[in-house]
Structures are given as C-alpha cells and as structure tokens.
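**Fold in tokens:**
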Amino acid sequence: MQNGTRLAAVDLGSNSFRLEIGRLDHGQIHRTEYLKETVRQGGGMDEERNLGPEAMQRGWDCLARFGERLAGFRKAQVRAVATQTLREARNRDEFLSRAEKVLGFPIDVVSGREEARLIYQGVAHSLPQSAERRLVVDIGGRSTELILGQGFDARVMESYRVGSVAWSMRYFPDAQFTPMAFRMAEIAAKAVLDEALNAYRRSAWDVAYGASGTIGAVGDVLGAAGWPPGVVTAAGLDWLLAQLLAAQRADNLRIEGMKDDRRAVIGGGLAVLRAVFELLQINEMHAAEGALRHGALYDMLDREHIQTDMRATTVQRLASRFDIDAVHALRVSQVATSLFRQIQTNIPEDQRDRLERKLDWAARLHEIGAQISHSDYHKHGAYIIGNTDAPGFALSELQRLSQLILGHRGKLRKLDADFEDASFVQQLIALRLAVVLCHARRDPDLKGLTLACNAGPVRRFALGVRAGWAEAWPQSAHLLREEVIAWQKSPWTLQLL
C-alpha cells in the first residue's frame, strides 16, 4: 500500500465496539480517529447462547454509525473482527447478515488463538523492539487471551472463556461487592486459567504487558490515585479491591479515573485480573497502548504480500505436518489457477489476486486428509481444515477453504455452500477440473484447453478442447464427461465442447 493510505479496523468486542482509523506512513500506522461505544453485546446472550433482540439492535445501531464514518473506504482498507461473543452465539449468522450490510464491509469472526495473535501484533507494534520475552494479557468481556512472544513473533497463544462481563453477570449479578463474591469469582477464574500454569510459567517471560479493556481501566484508576503511571501492581490491585468493598455497590463507586461505562463490569474484571496475577506470579504489569484493532490494521499490511501473509505460512506448515505431496499439490494449483484466470476477466486485479491466492491454498491442501485414510480423504481433509487452529485465518475463511477441499471431488450436493456465490463456484470448478486433469499425477496436456463462464441467469461453464484431445487422453476425457454429469445436479451446468 502507498504512503498516506487510510486504513480502518473495527473491533466487535463483547463489551465495546471500537473503530480505529489510521494513515500509513513508511510501514507505521498513525491514528487519525478513534471511536468507541459500549454495546455490552456479551451481556445480551441468554442461557441457550442466543443474542437477544436488544443486544443485536445495539450492535446494528453502533455499526451503522461506524459505517457512515467509513463511507468512501475501499474493501481492502477495512478489516472488521468479531471475538468471543460472536464465536459463542448460536444465532450469529442472523446478526452478521444485517451487521455486514449496515457496516458496509465483511466481518471476520476469529478463533480465540487468532484473536490472541492479533492482540500480540497490536502490542508488539506499539513497543520499542527489543529481545525481551513478553507475556501479553488481554481481559475482554467474555474471554481472556494470554500470549508469549518475542519481537513480532507470537509463540504461545491461548484464549480462555473468562472475562469481565461474563464474571460480573455471574458473580456480581446485583452489582454488590462482597468479600465472598470476590473470593468465589477468583476461585472460578483460577479453575479456568490453571491449565495456563505450565505454558506461561514465570521463567518463560521477562516483562508482562496488559492490553486494552480491564487492564487499561485498572491502570487509569491506579494512576489517578498516585500509583506509578502505566503500571499495574499486585499491591495496587489489593488497594482497588478495598475501594470496591468499601463502596459495596457499583452504583456507589466514585473513583477518579474510572469511566462510567466501566463500573458495571469492574468487579468481574478485577477478579479475573487478580487471578491472573496470582496464578502466573506477576508482581507488576505494564499497560500497553496496542490492542486487537491495531493488530488487525498491521495484519492488513502483511496480507498485501505472500511472503508476510500469515495464512500462507499456516498453509505451508499444515502441508508439511500432514506430509502432503508438494510436487503434485503445486501441479494442481498451477492448473487450477490457469483455468480460474480464464473466467475471471471482469473483476479488479486486487480482488482476483485474493481469490487466486485462496484457490492456491485449497489446491495445496486438497489431499491433506489422505494421511488419515485414502477412502473419502476429501471428507477427512474438510474436517481437518474446518476444525484446526489456523493462524491468520478467520472462521469464515476456514469454512470456505474446507468447502473447497470437500467439494474438489465427488458429488456436489454434499456441500454446505452458497451456489449463488459465483466466485466460490468458479474457484470450485477450477479446482475440480484441475484435479481431474492431473489425475495421473503428471503435468497434463493443456494445449488448446479453454474454460468460459456465463454467470447470468443461465449459469453455465463451457470447457473446450482441441480436436483429437479426447482420443489422445481417453481417461481424462472420461473423467471430464463424469464431471459434466456431476454439475447437472447443481444450479450450474458444465458443457464439454
């Protein structure tokens, strides 16, 4: 991206929605605007894990305001990321369908570990580069992320289902602060977090940093009370607990530095933070300026180039871990990409490049399930991709990749895919035809082979071959005729010329 390009990140957190707008300047992103609204969507989820109408409406209203501010931004300039509440919500598709329309941009629901990775990237870019080993902690509304890293490299990442909104609702439901409530909340938080003891032991890091939300709010309160600015200490947490117990209720809190929207969730947040301090033997934690939204901004820059795109690195690691035949996978990728380019002539180049990159990843991983069993390996592969922790990928991207791998062979009706999505169907047919043409695991004869697409009401593909090709390659011709039959049972048709 060019210097001066405006970039924006939207963070759909469980407690607050945030919009960060910045301008690119020689690899650094400098803030030009920041908006935050307390939506408390995480508090609007019922026992069946469904978002209530009021919680969804609060989210839509906020995103509509953000969308108005983002008018004029291109798709490549905006990244919207949703976290724990929408990971959990059973009716998230209902919310997201309207949310994306009012915002005007796609919304990526990310896994817990991907959220942790983005948080670390945001924090790392806000700090001077050094060799120190860092522990980064982010206590959100419904989840807490713990990350160990060095420089820009996040090495250990985990997300735990414990947060300020969830714990406040569960252990301080009437907004009363009592010693027993805090004791029970801290015990429960430790029960969730205690598996972190081995991975995040005190000898594994040098400096602890706290990102966003609860830790930032606690740091502000302690700083206003005369404690060292930008630092949260165990003694400071004891002092803050005493202030909450003295107030007895959230409504009675009058502490300098505490914002009004934080009072309702400070009890749960403080209990979780005290549990983290005790379990991980933390004496002091530095408040970091970077957060998830900043990590999302820098991740957009990384995605510009295949060498820095974390998703490409993840694909390479998966291919290596599952011992995929790299030569054959590259062959299928090259053929699929060549076919795809023939039918992608009327879209912007940057959009086509993104689609080609994702098709390449599907081709390189299409045999990933063969390590489990050759029989139905495409089904095993789809399951692996749909259920793996894949750094860099949003859940929707993994779902699409999983569907391409599942659909690269066999019947099409097994797919849980939208056949109205022309770009997905075009990726799918390019991959299926490439697998057919490469069936002998050698470079196929592509001379004179053409693929055309009519994405209008007819929705038809036409594959042309030169005279004599079918006689020269009878097995490939047979498989292509079988492919024509397979597409007859879908909303699209394939014609062999």
Q: What stands out?
A: The domain at 305-444 is CATH 1.10.3210.10 (Hypothetical protein af1432).
